[in-house]
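Allow me, if you will, to draw on your knowledge of protein folds for a short while. I have a record of one protein: its chain in single-letter code and its fold written as discrete structure tokens. I remain grateful for any guidance, and I place the record below:
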Amino acid sequence: MNSHSRSLIRSSLALRTSARNISTSSSSKPTGDISSVFPSLSGATSLPLPPRFADLKERLIRGHEREVTESWHRLLATLQHKRDELKTLGSRIVPEINFYDLGDVGKRTNFRDALHKTGVAVIRSVVSEKEALDWKELVQRYIKTNPSTKGFPTENPAVYELYWSPSQILARAHPNILRAQAFLMSHWRSADNSSLISTSNPLSYADRLRIRAQGDTKFALGPHIDGGSCERWEEDGYGRGAVYNAIMAGNWEEYDPWEASCRLPVKSDLYNGPGGCSMFRMFQAWLAMSEVEGGEGHLMVCPMIKEATAYFLLRPFFSAVDNWTLENPTSSLLQGAVPANCQEINPSLHPHLGLEETMFHIPRVRPGDYVAWHCDTIHAVDKVHRGASDSSVMYIPACPLTEANAEYLARQRETFAEGLPAPDFPSSSEGESQHRGRLTPEYVMKNISLEAQRAMGLVAFPAEAKGVLEQEREVMRSANEILGFT
């Protein structure tokens, strides 16, 4: 990027360190690719967790051992019932709604009820099929023009280390994408009415894209959950917001996956993993750029958000060799959790989930469909892509406006200026900084909407506008200060 472009970003877009001294330095993550946070993909050896995790486990349920044991057995019975239900429904359990029906109260209500149970959803025709296919063609040209582009696997990549291609920037900025994100996030709720969060102001999160060729067997991403692993048990991780306290107290039925205010203090990346997510993403999501169905490199999900979450969190407290009684003595095991990696789930470590029967493909998608899943959802992709053409998506998660997310946005905005990987992702000294065809800041400012510019942290939020709810006004004021606009 030339000095004029840097000046535009730093001066015209007010890129300066805020009063809170938020760092806007480039990513300090280790180098790597998408396999870096999945031992099952990278082949890395998982070392035993240190003894402090045994102490942690004892603290988490101390005084509630009987209640936790009773709740565990209630959970196992519920899981068996859910498995029977899912066998009958299959992929039909995944709720769908057309983008142009988002204003239909009846359809919205049915969609909401199903989403709250499953944690996954498809919004059809968020952008036109032609637009989605044009974006795929454009990014394929971008890759061809820039042969230095890295990805996984190294030979014949399926997932590219791209964050700032024209297609990705334009897709994230599309008004329909922003509206779909706000619609999805409206299904969360806050127990604390004073919590500083706005779901009606989606933030842009720069993530990768996938173009998986037919026949690929290397991007065999098994069942997992993003957003940290050990952090879900740690007091300085998800414990900061007491997110899972009901589960640890033996009342998993009282756990609310859709309560947002408890997640605001969470630290989901305590180990600076090369792909560990530090931003609060209410939904992981992608936009389809090809027509794909089950078996064709497609997404699979476990559509029982509350029960599956309770299970993988309670699993480390119980011993398989002692007929599923509480461990004695307590071990440091957190099955599938490795620091700086995603939480992996598998049949041998998590047998009661019945993954062979409870992981279902998302229904067939067409270019322009938007697929989303709750940030705690277990998901995977087909181990073998048996389709006749590519399986292509752009990852575009849904992120609310919060103070912590605004802090991340300030750092991400700097990587946009430099053409470097977004802060959550593996670092690179060059990234896309020398890529031909990368959009200039001038172009972006002239060709995306004001709403999209706000989502990227390029202009201030309208904190003083009439009709803004006081709670939203406060978080917008705070975000504007963090981003350097006040």
Q: What stands out?
A: Residues 131 and 289 are 9 Å apart (CA to CA). The chain is about 35% helix and 10% strand. The first strand starts at residue 96 and ends at 98.
